Amino acid sequence: MKHTGKAIITCAVTGSIHTPSMSPYLPVTPDEIAEQAIEAVEAGAAVLHLHARDPIDGRPSPDPALYMQFLPRIKQQTDAIINITTGGAPGFSEDDRMAGPLAASPEMTSLNMGSMNFGFWPLADKFDWKHEWERELMLGSKRFPANHNFALIERIMTELGEGHGTRFEYECYDIGHLYSVKHFADLGLIKPPFLIQGIFGILGGLGAELENFFLMKQTADRLFGDDYIMSCFAVGRPQMKFLAQCALVGGSVRVGLEDSLYIGKGELAVSNAQQVRKVRQILDALDIPIATPEEAREILGTKGGDRVAF
């Protein structure tokens, strides 16, 4: 693993799985997404991972026009690295998932490294849903796997990586996903440094036990040597424990309402910035400095904020 001396804080602002009925603080409209993203950068985030939502009912949306209602505002008021999803949401076509990133030509996008069961259907009967689509989204995760096939992965690498100079946050939910990154690296389709985002606690992926974190790091060390930066997050209650452990071994961290709606046991986070401030306090207590956006650009090798299309 490449030891940079500083931890990069990524904030995943809204995602596509959590819904408005789960938290009144989840940003949905372009204004809410922009405001929470800007506050997160002010709190210490260097990278913003972004999805778009329909402002009427909060459902995930692939519409590039919605992205363009908040991306320019965020760029004008911060110097953060913008990282747009290519995972999209359940039900999106492959073209849907490419639409926003191709229109925006961002410095980074996410890149899920394998198809998988991605289960959150146990939540279906735990909330009083405001919108019928919310419960349907939950139940659908029991029947339909998340599609991240090799052809789509290669398309993203080619059209966005080679075509737009975009770098990737390689989202790895299992050990096999690391080998998929290595496969495409060996083909020459992607170049280091690789930002490996280890994800723990999703039903269908690696469980949220620290032993799994160490297994992922050891495997990545063997496959990539000093050519990668480790980052991680865990969904739900183990979130901060995983972030602290990753930072202790020289890695980076990801927080945000996409990954967890809570700031403590039973207490909803009131903003993305609140989670950023909490993890920053943990890093400060461990004497681990955080990277500024410009330092993160140097570490990750991104093309620069002046070469995006918004």
Automatic annotation (TrEMBL):
UniProt keyword annotations, A-Z: Metal-binding, Transferase, Zinc
Family matches, as Pfam families: BKACE
Cofactor needs: Zn(2+)
Entries under InterPro entries matching the protein: Aldolase_TIM, BKACE
Protein name: 3-keto-5-aminohexanoate cleavage protein
Organism: Blastomonas fulva
